[in-house]
Amino acid sequence: MAAKSTSILRRALLYVPSSSPKFLAKSLGLTADNVTYDLEDSVTPNKKADARAALRDHLVGLSSRPKSISELAVRINAFSTPYAMEDLAALAPSPHLDAIVIPKVTSAEDLTLATDALRRFAADRHAKGGPEGANPVKLIALIESAQAIMNLREICAASPYLSGLIFAAEDFALDLSITRTPSLSEFLYARSAIVTAARAANLPSTIDLVCTSYKGDDGIRQLEEECLGGKAMGFNGKQCIHPSQVDVAQRLFAPGEKEVEWAVRVVIADGKAAAAGRGAWTLDGTMIDAPVAGKAKAVVQKAENCDMDVASLREKWKGQEPE
Ligand code: COA
Ligand code: MG
């Protein structure tokens, strides 16, 4: 069974190139659900060893995880390269490491290799059949090829530490010789397959493609559109490449204010309807029944996880009755 938690928030996953001392230092002052230090594509082959050593020193030098960052991750190199095992040997034992992002996962084999490496290089956190609450390093798999899409079911079941999937559009487009368009319709099947497979395997997070245009109003507009589109498809977060993208992604992947208000009203009225033995009832002229009430409860839970002020809304709407 995969790592389960409904409370993991990865609305934004910000890549920080590990080859840049400036970016490493800057990252500690940022506020983000997830910061992922990159050793893969933002680092050239001649800089791999230096970047790995600099990142290890950076993590070892932290007295704790910065409070404004919920999750610290490292993107290692792919297992098809000579670097992956060295990355894991150097970084898996890092004290404040929460997750490893594995690029170019194509089959269950990649996750088996990563799982074995965690048990070897961070044995204290990954004892087989170890105690509950041992705080294992989680794994997040990048899905970026046709082969990976075909193997999603086995990938999702391959490791007890697997905690999410990420869709990588640029490598996927390269693999299939397709050209990215603003509508993203060319990725519809792959993105939908990813969110469906992750949900079926009870993985808590699915993270959508990078918005590569990040500059100016046009960049922000494009990012907003992509976030809303991804959320509507079932993704719960977005990869970011620039700090300016993080706030936008975190705002749009949290429930909207109107949505939370509606959900609070449904939850309050549903409790009263249930007490009166009514399974289906009406709010604002629209029928509410079990799946709708279930959705409302999930929205309220998510809003609480996102630190939204749900208590005030409960107070405001405590008199809500089912119509
Ligand atoms: N992580 C941490 N800090 C970052 C950052 C990142 N990914 N991107 C930018 N910054 C910092 C800059 O250092 C700068 O800090 P300062 O104001 O203290 O000088 C500030 O944010 C503004 O940056 P800006 O000047 O607008 O961008 P840039 O020209 O320095 O960098 C990129 C632009 C695209 C090169 C850079 O954002 C980047 O490398 N992103 C990550 C790319 C990556 O990881 N790709 C692989 C995964 S898809
Ligand atoms: Mg890639």
UniProtKB/TrEMBL annotation:
Transmembrane segments: none
Pfam families in the cross-refs: HpcH_HpaI
Alphabetized InterPro entries for the sequence: Aldolase/citrate-lyase_domain, Citrate_lyase_beta/mcl1/mcl2, Pyrv/PenolPyrv_kinase-like_dom, Pyrv_kinase-like_dom_sf
Swiss-Prot/TrEMBL keywords: Lyase, Magnesium, Metal-binding
Single annotated GO MF: lyase activity
Domain (HpcH/HpaI aldolase/citrate lyase) ranges: 11-243
Family matches, as Gene3D superfamilies: Phosphoenolpyruvate-binding domains
Cofactor(s) recorded in Swiss-Prot or TrEMBL: Mg(2+)
PANTHER family documented for this protein: HPCH_HPAI ALDOLASE_CITRATE LYASE DOMAIN-CONTAINING PROTEIN, LYASE BETA SUBUNIT, PUTATIVE (AFU_ORTHOLOGUE AFUA_4G13030)-RELATED
Protein name per the record: HpcH/HpaI aldolase/citrate lyase family protein
